[in-house]
Structure formats: C-alpha cells, structure tokens
Amino acid sequence: MVDDGAVPGAVVGVVHSGRTSMAAVGNTEVGGTTAMPVDAVMRISSNTKPMVAAVALLLVQDGVLDLEDAVETFVPELAGRRVLRQLDSRLDDTVPAHRPMTIEDLLTMRMGYGFVFDSACPAVDEAEAAGLGFGPPDPAAVPPPDEWVARLAPLPLLEQPGTAWRYEFSFGVLGVVLARATGTSLDVLLRERLFAPLAMTHTGFTAPRHRLVPSFARSETGLVLFDSAVGSRWSAPPAFPDARGGLVSTAHDMLRFARMLLDDGNGLLSPASIAAMTTDQLTAAQRSGPSAQAFLEGGGWGYGVGVTDGPAGRRYGWGGGLGTLWYNWPDHDAAIVLMTQVLPPAAELFDAFTTAAETALGPP
C-alpha cells in the first residue's frame, strides 16, 4: 500500500509473548526522500480516548470519582439538561432529562450527544457553528475548557442520558470532568498518572518539532498536506487539551500502554478496572444504532475501547482518524500498532493489517 501511494510511509509495532519488534517502511512525505523513522511522532487522534479512559479509571480506583457520579457535580453548567423530542427538532422543542449524565455515560459514549448520521439535526449544526470541535482534531481551533463548556451548556441533548451510543463528544466532556475533579489540567494529569509511570516519554498534547512527521488528507487529486511538521498546529500547547483526539505519540509509547493492559495493569490499573474497561458495556439495541453501526461495525464498546470477537479471539483497542490503529489480543498476549498519517485512514489498510495479525496469531 506504500508502493501504491495509499500512505507515504508507516511504522508497525508488535508485542507478543514478552517480545517487542518494530519496523518502518516508506517515507515521511508524498514523493519525499526522507525515510520514515521507527520513532516518528504522529498525531494519534482517537487513540487518545483509551488513554483518557484509563486515567478516569485510575481516579475511580483512588475514590476521586465514582462511575455513578453525576457530571454536573464537577460541571454544574451542565445541570438541568433538556432533551430534543426528536433529532431534527428545533432547539427549543425539548423535554426534561430523566436523570443527570454520569461518569459512566461519558466513558461509554451514552451521554446523549454526538455525531448524527441518521437525520438532520439543528443541535449538531449549532455545536459546529459554536466551534466545539466536530471533525478532524485542530488544537488551535477549540476554545479553553471553561469557554467550551459555556458554549455547550445552552444546547439540548439528542437523547436521554444512558440510552444511545453516539461518537465522540462525551470524551470532550470527560476531559473537563477529569481536570476539574483533580484541580489540574488534563495534560498534566495524563503525564503524571499515565505517561510518566509507563515511560511514555513522547506522548502528549504538544509535539517535538524534530520528531513530528507531516500528515495528509485524501482529495480527488491525491494526498494533500493536512498539517506540516514545521509550524504544526501541534507545536504549541493547546488552549483545550482535547480528550477526544488531541495527543501525539509513537509506536513505542503506544505499545507501552498496550503492554500495561496485557500485564493486568502492571501495578497501575487494577485487573478489575482493566476487565471493566475491556468488556462490552452496550446493549444489543445500542450496538445496532446508527452511530454504532458506523463506527463499531458489529462490535461493542467498553470504557474508551472497542471490543470485538474475531477469528483470533477477543480483541480490544481503537483507531485514530488521522491514520493510527491499536489492538490487544489478551488470549495471545499480543498487541499491534500501525502508525500512518493519512486522513481518513483507508478501510482497506486497517482491514488488511488486522486480518494479517489475526491470521498470524491463529485461533485462541
């Protein structure tokens, strides 16, 4: 696929039975001559979510949070939610929420707000107009957390809390909750509780210029530059450390995170927390909803990760819309990561990579 021009280059990392292997192929740019380095820093987009979920569960273990805590305890601006009568209703055609949103609703993406594929939706149009961050990550375009919440607060929910799975807005709210619950910014919280203990030294909301590679977007004429390495939108700390998809990382760092989960938390997360995180939390009706059909493709969702039963047994993990993919197969003590920088990632690439891994692993 590199030879065919689907991606300029890629990094692959594998952990299997205690051994780690890494490889890179291709170049950093379309038509370029700089070989893709194995330690390239890339924008991991929605691969941010599993890491944020892990820190949320660390705070639950510490007693700072409870899964049943109301979101409004930490974000009082979101108290007294109203809910649209139907997705295409006017913003003032609402009913009261049956109950407050909870921390678990955020982790499971059942807060009642997110992407809509099945209807016109003025409430989502309003969120886009308010600059709340729909679409590809853009660290320079989203306002600081308090302003972000202030713009969100007047908007009604799309469904009653806890009833429907909708990607991905709830993780934006979750990031605000984690910061307020701990009295620190999300970037510092992630670094202190997750990245430093796991020696994930190149993961964060700001990219080192000398290690970051460019990213590209698909167009009718081929790949065009989405974000450069020099002057990148990730080169300065963002006003809003976005838990939905703001991190950069390396294949090596992502495998450290994967290894921690395979090792029953390695003294960080408890085995019970990992079991909850990697178990499907959705009902059959929620898995069959339009947003779930678009993103989960028949699988389920735990706390921040997709969960699927495949030919190599149960796997969990997630992909990033800028071209990254990670899965764990606990029955095989195996993890894989694929790092590219093309928006949106080709389904053929992700499918071929996953199929190759599962074929190599074989049945559990």
SSE diagram, text form:
Blueprint: E1 9-16, E2 19-26, E3 42-43, H1 48-62, E4 82-84, E5 94-96, H2 103-107, H3 122-129, H4 145-152, H5 170-182, H6 186-195, E6 215-219, E7 222-227, E8 248-249, H7 251-262, H8 271-277, H9 284-287, H10 290-296, E9 300-301, E10 306-310, E11 313-320, E12 324-329, E13 334-339, E14 342-343, H11 347-361
Parallel strand pairs: 6-14
Antiparallel strand pairs: 1-2, 1-13, 3-8, 4-5, 6-7, 9-10, 10-11, 11-12, 12-13
Helix pairs in contact: 1-5, 1-6
Please tell me about this protein's structure.
The protein folds into 2 domains: 9-47 and 185-361, DD-peptidase/beta-lactamase superfamily (Beta-lactamase, 3-Layer(aba) Sandwich); 58-182, DD-peptidase/beta-lactamase superfamily (Beta-lactamase, 3-Layer(aba) Sandwich), CATH 3.40.710. The chain is built from 11 helices and 14 strands. It has helices at 48-62, 103-107, 122-129, 145-152, 170-182, 186-195, 251-262, 271-277, 284-287, 290-296, 347-361; strands at residues 9-16, 19-26, 42-43, 82-84, 94-96, 215-219, 222-227, 248-249, 300-301, 306-310, 313-320, 324-329, 334-339, 342-343. Strand 11 (313-320) and strand 12 form a beta hairpin. The radius of gyration is 20 Å and the shape is globular. It starts with 8 loop residues before the first strand and ends with a helix. The relative contact order is 0.19.
